[in-house]
Design brief:
alpha+beta, 35% helix
Amino acid sequence: MCLGRYSRCLISRLQSLHLQKRQLCSTATHNGKPSQPSPPPIQVALTESAGRGVFATRRIRASDLIHTAKPIITHPTLSTLNSVCYFCLRKITSSSQHFQHHNARFCGEVCKDNAKAFYDVERRADWSAFNDYCRSQGLKYPLLVKRLACMIISGAESADSIYILQPASLSPEMILEMEEGFVMLRSAFKKAGIDDEQMKFLNKQWYTNVLARIRINAFRIELAGGLYEDLLSSAAASIESEIAVGNAIYMLPSFYNHDCDPNAHIMWIDNADARLMALRDVEEGEELRICYIDASMARDARQALLSQGFGFQCNCLWCSSGD
């Protein structure tokens, strides 16, 4: 999902909410102590026309943080391999503390330890040809497939761990185009000494099934960065940012459906941990929706992009009214 480019009106809405929150919000306390966080006010249920969706279980106020989400899989873009944490995608500068482990950089010991789920397998192989293939073809999703395969080989994930996510509809031509990536991925593992038993899941069908799910469920991570007084100012900054540091797959955020005039927004402050916030008041039972694309485009352009990239025709109020 490409969620980094939005209309100026959405930026204005976020900045307006930021102002309201500074003026009206105070920290809830009980007996002089901050109140304990409550469970996320949401549930996943079936919609009338768009499969699964996320619904509010109580009234949610504009600017509220709905929930946070940690990614299942992340991978930096090939252009940021040396400038972000190889695990959480936090930006690393020449002056920031970081840990070098073989060819990867990590922002701290925690990320370096967490990366063992894939990196102990990944570093055994030579990925130069695979990376060159992705770079020359302008591909980013096979990198996430590679990382998931490493996690499965290491025993950190099961082969069907993301099968719960909705897959994209793939044409025979698209499936044929995926074959080269599959062959190169399996070859890299083979040359690294990974035996057939460890790779028994890694066949063409698995590769295609996983890539079909990643294709429409991956989020492009654009960090707001810096220090902000609250999440709203960071949200506006993340929308104005144009630089993607990587891509990630999440479980719960992937169940959010699209609307060109959304009532919720996903953001990333300084790493790949996602934050979902309400853009306006949401009533109990109302579906929460985010925007997958640049909503400032003309209706026909939006419809074409959603159809080609996500396989559906948008029937939101904006599109239905011709806006």
